[in-house]
Amino acid sequence: MTPRSGTRWLVATLAALLVGCGDDVATTPANLGLDAGTDSGATRPRVRLLVDANRDGTVSDTGDDEAFRASWDAAHGAVFLANVDDDDDDDVLDGADDVVNGEADALDLARVRVAPMPGLVEGATGRLSLTGPTSPTVRVFRVDGGAWRRIDPAAETLSTADLRGGVELGVESSGFPTAEWRGEITLTLAVTRGGEALGDDRAVMRVAPFVVSSSLDETERVYATTGGGIFALARFINDLDSITTEDRMEFETIDGMDPDWGERDRGPDVWTQDYMELGWTAMPGGDAPRGMNVVLRTPRVDRAIAAWTRRDFVGPNRGYVWHHSARYPAARAHDPSLDSFGNLEVIPAYGAYPLGRLFHGNVAARSSDPELRAFLNAQRVQGPVLELDTSWLHVGHVDEFASFIPVNSPRGWKLLVASPRAARAQLQALVEADPANGERVMFEGQRWFHPEGHPLEGRAYSAARTINSILADTELMAFNQSDQAHIDMVREILQTEAGLTDDEVIEMPFLMWEIENGQGAAYMPGTVNLLLYGRSVIMAKPHAAVLNNADFMQTHLSALMRAEGITAHFAEQWDILHAAEGEVHCGTNALRRIPGRGAWWEVAR
Amino acid sequence: MRRLLATLSLSLLPSLVGASPLLDPRAVPDSVARPLATAVRADRARHPEAYRRVADLEGLRPEFYRRSRAGRPSVAIELRALGPEALLPMLDALALSGYPRDLSADERSALRLGLLETVGNLGDARALPLLRSVFATATEAPELRAAARGLARVCQDADRRTLMAATGERRDPAASALGRCADPEASRWMVSQLESTVAPSHAAALAQGLAESASSWARPGARSPLDAPLRARAARAVIRRWRELPTQRDAIGVAALSMGGPEMLAAVREARRDAPTEAAPGLAALERALLRDLRR
Prior knowledge:
heterodimer; A: alpha+beta; 3 domains; 12 helices; 34 strands; elongated; disordered N terminus; B: mainly alpha; 2 domains
């Protein structure tokens, strides 16, 4: 006779008799797989769908994984991935097909286990159901004969043997949360025999969002676009190459003249910042989050080079996502320039935003793609997106006036903000120190409009101007005061939002000028528009007046950065970027690693 | 080789014959067109290159502007580069000859605006007849703004009066452009209008105009067209309207900071003394920004 608890055996037997299960009903808790020990459920099998509810990277059948399997909050709840990479490099995103594409892809599946019910009564079967979105597609796989097989939960019957031995499932999504779907799914398992319900269980999971990398995240590599045999571009690329080599930073160029982009007649699209936003997605993975880098392609459907993101970026642990309005542009006020990703930046971690907060230029009269904003807001952890007025800028991007650097302070970072005020003050101080400085020339040797080597180079005109003539230009000064007013307004919003003191803001001196219709752009190279990696920044060579054999602005900026423990590098980009209303940040991009502190699931939103 | 390519590209220009003018015919009455055509005939013989350049703008070529960061046609910087010699060629393109190839609506609009702004910025009285008729007939806000600013750049008495008397859709572009006159009469008028207007958008436009006129960076202290008492009055009027018109606070706030100076700081501080709770943070922000400026 098998040892057993006399009381439980008695309860089970009585219960079986009461429900009239007759001969088919096993009479011991052990061989029933019963949730023995409770008064009311003694005859019911202990049905459990186990998930990684405690977020330790494994699924166990005890503790918090079991206790919190049906709930989701900042402390508990299982996560699954939008499986948007291509681990087997077959050019099909892993979440878009019905197979598990090898071992690496299997790691991207969030595990769900049907806990074994070894004593389950013969004839009992299980039926899964999934409550989730219609789009994107959430797929469920099961291990079957040692291999993964996609199942349709509604059509899949788990046999008695399956249930007795337990079943391992894997879950993935083909996409991220949307405006219509907050990212949650509920998996339910119902065990029945004949028409009789024996027990059920449910597990709640939430899909990982797309998270935009902060410029403070550890950088893996830097990108820039090249090609076309343009001297000014080659010079910029050469400078980037030298600087990144010195800093031992990986540097990768994207061929802007690849025939696939069809740019043969118009040269490379050099705005590497604008055609893609790099980020990541992750689920709990033990010691560190497990996930993948993801590229968000610009909504601009006419941006040919953006196809690089799908063709070349995607691969193992490198995913892809693209959202745009079906009708593009979406409305009269929709300005596609605002869908460039120089217009999407992240305030680094603060307060309730441990992964930072997105900010973006958008107002009703001049707006970005509503589909883009809806997608970003649906990710929640870095939102809602802080929308700023950039309509006073000709290009209209937030990276024209704000960036961030890491510093040694409790907060760990400072805001850099464009400052015509500081530029004017610098120029005035030079003249006050020595009136002869007023005749020193800014932008010596630089030209507007056609870069050196361009067929229409002869139309270029000199940018050179004395300091006195700049300071005496009433229209330029009035325009700069107006742009400074706009900058002060957005600065106030950013400072208030993040709780920054004035000491946590560094004013980056450069003047603006009007391009057209009251909208401005950087007149002096816009040094706030910089590329940051580690403790290095690359910014535009200022081409300011030379004092004591050095560009006074370059000297000033180097000191400003050095005081914060940052090394400033300067790249030559006037002709290729500055004269076309962009600077170093616009012409580059950076792939950042998934931060170790990337536990987005702890963000209570 | 480069020179050869440049010459080649210019020689391949299509003929100007048959191109349509860029402006509504109502903006180019005979009284404007005839003297302009005479002046252009003589000028074209003297400066043929300037006409070729205005007729061959890189910023209108899709292969060029799609590569710019804004990604849309824009000719302002290019036209600015042509200098005063291009005045008559630009007026010719606007009023008489148009552009020698078909343009998309966006390209056409960018060209029209770029030409209007650039001729206005040159501050040459020869542009005034056309700018006046554009101001009288245009319906698009950017064009009205460009024409009004062009008139204010020269700021002849009659044009100042026209801008002050503007009504309807012309009223606000005229009010903000008057600041470019930067003279005492226009400034006094703007202050009194700002004190009395009941129209929110007009108040914002007047504040913007005053900001340009009284910009403490452009014309500090004694160089201001507003004497110290008028500056103080203007600052108080701007801040009072900021308080009274919540829907216009962004625009008027920018105007307040664009004007700057100790008078504006005093006006903000005065307003803070009895400001309602809802207005307090905004006024505090204005004060912070003004102080940053004054400490420099």
